[in-house]
């Protein structure tokens, strides 16, 4: 258990040091995938939720900076919503980054620790809302 | 003033936020029973700076506030905090101002018959991206109006085919923010005023028609 936790912390630390630089991504291709697929996945997941009630936590002002935050919110499990990286929009986001960001690491992510096992729907909806609004900022930002 | 399409419903009544053309943000309240007679005050900020008071309130006939106009920024999160006379929060939001975008209508519509008998419709671009445009047309000869037909496309022109060069038509356009670009709370602009297109051959038959708004 302790070993697992240490490994997880180590992985997070390594990630922080080796943060991928998204400035060489093919933004046009990623935009197409987002507009035609991922946007509909995200709004589908939020369907019925009054997601206007979730205040936005972060903004971003360039396409690389927005992709960095989108990737961070989408592919790292959080307490209360361990399943987030397994959702279909997250798989497709990862596939889009692998396909259109040269050198983007294809390694699998940690699925979350025992402390994260409890899933709270409102936490997943809030996180999904944060991700969708970061995509809006990506769309409105210069390269 | 109220734009129902962008209404954000809170448990304390309706507050409407509209960001006009990414230039100013209009917040209105006081239309529901919960706010009548209460003098509400609005504070706002972009990012994490200090909260600022509303720079320009709307006042109702009774002298109580009914809305506020504040500047729009194209980036950064706009935080809105609406409080009642006792300081209790009535409405709170934190989004980009563009979340509530309502563009201005395109300003100058140009209509041109092509040699092929199509009509080329064009208009000037807005100063920002992420808009689609809806072009509507209907036959309007001697005041007999057909139903509107809609064609959509990106900036800043499109072709409408299948028209009769011997007849007269009405055209109008509006700008519609793309949902994937601005979100589901943004709303289309108003329609432009109707522009009349005379038949390619004759103009006389169009002049008797009324001018709808």
TrEMBL record, chain A:
Keyword hit for Signal: yes
List the signal peptide residues. 1-19
BP GO terms, sorted: antimicrobial humoral immune response mediated by antimicrobial peptide; positive regulation of chemokine production; positive regulation of cytokine-mediated signaling pathway; positive regulation of inflammatory response; positive regulation of interleukin-10 production; positive regulation of interleukin-13 production; positive regulation of interleukin-5 production; positive regulation of interleukin-6 production
Sample GO molecular function, one term:
cytokine activity
Which InterPro entries does the annotation name?
TSLP, TSLP_sf
Q: Which UniProt keywords apply?
A: Signal
- Which Gene Ontology CC terms are recorded? extracellular space
Keyword Electron transport listed: no
The protein, known as: Thymic stromal lymphopoietin
Q: Which organism is it from?
A: Mus caroli
